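Priority: medium. Attachment 1 of 2:
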């Protein structure tokens, strides 16, 4: 039986322009045998091809094809037996490390590390690692070293206390990075607590000894007064310049949040007054120890945790400042309250953490004891909380998703030396302001949740 071969097609005659168009395909062997022959015939007989150096095309192509056919896959550096030996040695080394950790009592820390690497969201480790954010804007260098910041309710103006070795308070236009007003401060050091009234017409600032309230329309001082020794609470009628309340700091928040009264009085807020988030916001009808303006969690005695002003806060003058919704009354408080941690704490005498993220953080601080400490700023929209772990030197500010407990973002700023008045959220939760350890006040644009 005769073997039937492929029927050969006629060899076409090509013009020089046609050969130029298909020359690359010819060189890489993409043409049919008939077209290859047509190109070679043309090149041998074409004077232009000789001048342009195309006559060696056939030999170059054959050499390239020959070299490509000679390429072989690379051999592995290790044979199968050697790879198996390396694998066994690696497993033995890992087992020795685990045994060493158990013998030295570090097994729990190792398991914790592995579980954290697997993800904190309770979904089998599908959470992505935290993304490090970079600041989107920075205020002028004269804000470097500021002691406290506060943002107006409309997010348009930022009050910065101190900076560049100065003691005054400067009000900045956020959009234009331009100073609008400078307020004099008579203290030896700049204030460490600062707060706006709801309508933006008044600003209050305090240190460990004095409280000053300004009229921002004129820049004049409305009231300057001496503060009592901490722990203490005072409610001031700024319009009449009188004290209208002296709540007991030991029991004021024992039943939870406090509600503003018409005459500046504070009473226990009704159940559910804080809403589903459980966090009070500036100029809200209620005042709570868990505030979006910042909460300090630190270790107490006998494996307990506290929220409020620590001894270091009291010494530097960091305190709770909260305006009534109408802007007439101002609460100042240098106090702390126990946190309900585990079965040992009673909900009747201890503040209940607003969510599982903060509850877990408070439990860890109580267990660590000594100088364990953390700061928390709750986003007003209630979906995220910024956490600053001051127990670990060099830790960075983390933005945690409250629903999953997963750290979504990390900021490029360190927690060292920060207080509750060193950072804040904008009222819409879209931006986070922070006083860095070095450099001017910075703004971080936070991606939508």
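Attachment 2 of 2:
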């Amino acid at each position: 039986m005769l073997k039937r071969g492929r029927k050969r097609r006629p060899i076409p005659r090509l013009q020089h322009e046609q050969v130029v168009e298909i020359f690359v395909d010819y060189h890489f062997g993409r043409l049919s045998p008939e077209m290859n022959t047509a190109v070679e015939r043309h090149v041998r007989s074409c004077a232009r091809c000789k001048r342009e150096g195309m006559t060696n095309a056939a030999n170059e192509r054959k050499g390239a094809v020959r070299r490509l056919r000679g390429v072989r896959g690379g051999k592995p550096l290790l044979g199968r037996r050697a790879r198996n030996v390396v694998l066994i040695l690696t497993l033995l080394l890992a087992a020795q490390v685990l045994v060493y950790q158990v013998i030295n009592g570090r097994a729990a820390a190792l398991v914790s590390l592995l579980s954290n690497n697997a993800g904190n969201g309770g979904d089998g480790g599908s959470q992505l690692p935290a993304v490090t954010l970079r600041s989107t804007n920075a205020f002028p260098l004269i804000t470097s070293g500021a002691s406290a910041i506060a943002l107006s309710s409309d997010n348009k103006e930022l009050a910065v206390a101190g900076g560049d070795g100065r003691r005054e308070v400067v009000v900045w236009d956020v959009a234009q990075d331009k100073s609008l007003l400078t307020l004099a401060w008579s203290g030896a050091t700049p204030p460490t607590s600062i707060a706006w009234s709801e309508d933006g017409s008044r600003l209050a600032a305090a240190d460990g000894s004095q409280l000053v309230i300004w009229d921002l329309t004129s820049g004049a001082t409305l009231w300057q007064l001496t503060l009592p020794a901490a722990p203490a609470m005072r409610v001031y009628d700024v319009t009449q310049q009188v004290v209208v309340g002296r709540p007991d700091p030991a029991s004021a928040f024992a039943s939870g949040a406090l509600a503003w009264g018409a005459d500046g009085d504070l009473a226990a807020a009704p159940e559910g007054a804080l809403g589903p988030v459980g966090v009070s916001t500036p100029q809200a009808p209620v005042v709570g120890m868990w505030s979006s303006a910042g909460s300090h969690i630190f270790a107490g005695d006998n494996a307990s945790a506290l929220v409020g002003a620590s001894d270091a806060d009291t010494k530097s003058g960091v305190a709770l400042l909260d305006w009534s919704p109408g802007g007439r009354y101002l609460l100042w408080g240098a106090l702390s309250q126990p946190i309900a941690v585990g079965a040992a704490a009673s909900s009747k005498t201890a503040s209940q953490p607003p969510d599982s993220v903060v509850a877990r953080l408070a439990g860890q601080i109580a267990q660590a004891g000594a100088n364990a400490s953390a700061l928390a700023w709750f986003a007003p929209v209630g979906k995220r909380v910024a956490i600053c772990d001051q127990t670990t030197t060099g830790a960075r500010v983390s933005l945690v998703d409250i629903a999953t407990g997963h750290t979504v973002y990390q900021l490029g700023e360190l927690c060292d030396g920060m207080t509750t008045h060193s950072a804040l959220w904008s009222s819409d939760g879209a931006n986070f302001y922070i006083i860095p350890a070095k450099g001017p006040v910075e703004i971080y644009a936070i991606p939508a949740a």
